[in-house]
Design goal:
The protein is an alpha/beta fold. It has 5 helices and 5 strands, in the order βααβαβαββα. Helices cover about 35% and strands about 20% of the residues. The radius of gyration is 14 Å and the shape is globular. The mean pLDDT is about 90.
Length: about 140
Amino acid sequence: MRTILVLNGPNLGRLGSREPDVYGSANLDDLRTMLQAETGPTDTIDLRQSDDEAELIHWLYEAVDTGSPVILNPAAFTHYSYALRDAVALVTKAGVPLIEVHISNPHARDTFRHTSVVSAVATGVIAGFGFDSYRLALNFLTHRA
């Protein structure tokens, strides 16, 4: 059995009520249900959310230590957290796939959101498809990684 870590950064614990015009009306429990329904018999989903940068970094260390693939929505940390970027690099340099996802399309939003410090060290990036961004990442991890 393989565990796929689905890690979500700051403010994503407020999905469902936070800016539904941007992020939709579904919450993290809805995301968990959707991903579990898409997961095959040899994989399990471990979905987590934290507003704490250090906690996300420690979860990325865990991915390195356990070889667990990662779907990461770094949220606001996307744009400035070099500490998170360095932890992501540890994951991918260890040969563990990590897909950066975004519910909205950052390039269609505020200019400051156009830059990701994470993308260059992620295995791939999927953005702008709502919760389907996670589904597409999961499909890659379960069929190709």
